[in-house]
Amino acid sequence: MYMIDLPTAVRDLEPLTVLLYEGFEGGLSVTREFFETHGAPICKHLGPAIVRWYVKRFLSDRGHVVQELQQQDMNNNGLGMRFQPYYLRIWKSDDGQLPYPGQSRTKRDFLYQAAYIPFRWNWSPPKTNLVFLWSTDSEYQGLQLYLACPKENPAQEGAVATEWGPHPLEHPVMRRTAPALSEPPVIDLPYEYKNDSEVEGHDLGGTGATGA
User: Using CA atoms, how far apart are residues 56 and 78, in angstroms rounded to an integer?
Assistant: First the structure.
């Protein structure tokens, strides 16, 4: 199974990462407003669902086909999509780690990079399964996105093994280069350069007298 390296994946997915940061920040804002309006604390089950609903519409409005993934664990409900050569899942993570798939065969196959067997009459290029994770605080104020490449792993309880990641993705705003400090202005005095023959014999002190 062909596995992509981290720098290549981050570069390829940069346009989507920018959209995800924008979409999730909008989703967090809508969620905060919803619970503030109802005078209630953010529900750990309903909150992620509202964020997910907003992000799905946000991406769909921008031309990406996103399908809802229905999982038994509401905290781990996610979004699925394909972007370029990657098959992607977007899940919430409270600890920055990939969620254990439990009894979900579909989720297990995705996380364990189930091998694809090409047939001569139905061949398609190798695919790589990658996972975006989003994490926030209890007040839905902060946001951090991670990217991970899961690898084949024995069916056992515990953390899901990865080829690399979860790797924290820098916020697009933080990647912008800060403007360079402006140089102090240079005062352009009215003078002109002279060659050595013109300068020779003149006092550089400004007296105009020749040296003795």
Answer: 10
In a domain, 202, yes or no: no
For the packed helices 14-37 and 46-61, what is the interaxial angle rounded to 10 degrees? Answer: 130
179 found inside a domain: no
Whole-structure pTM value: 0.73
DSSP 3-state assignment of 98? coil
Backbone angles phi and psi of 71, in degrees to 5: -115, 155
Q: Calculate the CA 207 to chain-centre distance.
A: 68
CA 39, 40, 43 angle in degrees (round to 5)? 150
**Would 180 be classed as within a structural domain?**
no
The single residue listed with the structure tokens 């804002």 is 29
**Cα–Cα distance, 77 to 23 (Å, whole number):** 17
For residue 169, being part of any structural domain is answered with: yes
State the chain's mean pLDDT as an integer: 77
Residues 37 and 14: beta-carbon distance below 8 Å: no
> How confident is the model at residue 208, as a pLDDT?
45
